[in-house]
Amino acid sequence: MDILLVAGLWLDGSAWDDVVPALEALGHNPVAITLPGQGDGATSATLDEQVAAVLAAVDSASGKPVVVGHSAAATLAWLAADARPEKVAKVVLIGGFPAGDGKPFADFFETTDGAMPFPGWEPFEGPDSVDLDDEARDRFAARAIPVPEGVTNGVVRLTDERRFDVPVVVVCPEFSPEQAREWIGDGDLARAARLDFVDIDSGHWPMFTKPVELARILAAEA
Questions:
Q1: Closest CA relative to residue 12, chosen from 38, 46, 45, 41
Q2: Residue 29 — left, alpha, or beta (φ > 0 → left; ψ -120 to 50 → alpha)?
Q3: AB hydrolase-1 domain location, by residue (predicted)?
């Protein structure tokens, strides 16, 4: 099965380099997506352009793919289900939850020169980064790509309630399934016809620290 992999803020498709071969070994076809303005060489992009890139991958997939969104890209995965409910087999959300309709995509940190740079590790101290050593942190910071303001401030628009028919799996790294259920509450995801939770013992970036275990989870969900 095609498994479309969309990394969160500041990351390009190479974030999945250790997950891809593990998924291939398990018989799947992983596709790591590099988003516009987030690794393709462009310094500007919009949320609509990033959504379009994900939808292009959905449309070109063999059969109905699983769409995986990590962190802020959980919103991109959910927008794919909203735009292509008949073409998406399942949505897997890793360490993140979709922004609601009418909300900004990811205006979490200050922008500089039209983009939101990686803010350093202070906001992520604790469970998020506990399994990243100094070398891994330095490597992450060095590869981090400022996310264009047109993406971070883009407004999320959800229009098709058929998205609730698409099965959703929340992979819980730095938080527990119980916490995830509490945070979702009666929000948009709570209306999904099928909503499951899977725990993984890692920080916020399991593609770096637990790639094989993450691949096994994604393969099982596919």
A1: 38
A2: beta
A3: 3-216
Residue 30 contacts residue 7 (beta carbons within 8 Å) = no
Please give the structure tokens belonging to residue 54: 């994900």
**C-alpha closest to that of 145 among 54, 12, 44:** 12
- Contact status, residue 189 vs residue 195, Cβ threshold 8 Å: yes
The DSSP element (H or E) to which 199 belongs, if any, is strand 195-199
Residue reference for tokens 């352009």: 49
Any idea what the CATH number is for the domain that residue 69 is in?
Answer: 3.40.50.1820
**Can you read off the two tokens belonging to residue 130?**
């506990």
Sorted by sequence, the CB contacts under 8 Å of residue 195 that are 6+ apart come out as: 167, 168, 169, 170, 184, 189
Domain with 14, as residue range(s), is: 2-221
Based on the structure, what is the number of domains in the chain? 1
d(CA 79, CA 65): 14
Answer left, alpha or beta for residue 199, where phi above 0 means left and psi between -120 and 50 means alpha. beta
